[in-house]
Amino acid sequence: MIEPEAAAAAAEAPKKPHKSKDPLHGMTLEAILERLVKEHGWEALGRMIKIRCFTADPSIQSSLKFLRKTPWARKKVEQLFVALPTRYIPK
Predict the structure, then answer these.
(1) Burial bucket for residue 67 (CB in 10 Å: 0-12, 13-18, 19+)
(2) How far apart are CA 31 and CA 19, in angstroms?
(3) 80, 30, 29: which is closest to 50 by C-alpha?
(4) CA 43 → CA 2, 50, 72, distances in Å?
(5) Distance CA 58, CA 21 (A)
(6) pLDDT tens across 64-78, in order?
């Protein structure tokens, strides 16, 4: 049987934050896209991922609308983000 003091101490012990192994954990699609555009530009994105929303009059909002409706395109953008080296860019 567990002693009451031990049970109380275990309940009060600080929990270690869970670290996700997902490199995209906590990142929104908008943040990913903004970062890619800031670092590489629309022209380079259009060459790397051949989708029209990056080549024909691109904007963050129109691209987000398309990527949210199109799972295969969103997956390509997320894979590109993980694969490319990124620099720290302050907000």
Answers:
(1) buried
(2) 20
(3) 80
(4) 64, 10, 20
(5) 32
(6) 999 999 999 999 999
Q: Do 36 and 74 meet the contact criterion of CB atoms below 8 Å apart?
A: no
Contacts of 1 (CB under 8 A, 6+ apart): none
Percent over 90 (pLDDT), the chain: 59
Task: Specify whether the CB–CB gap between 49 and 76 falls below 8 A.
Answer: yes
3-class SS letters over 22-37: CCCCCCCHHHHHHHHH
Give, to the nearest 10 degrees, the angle between helix 60-69 and helix 71-83: 120
Which structural domains are found in the chain, ordered by start? 27-83 (1.10.720.30)
- Consecutive H or E run containing 11: helix 4-12
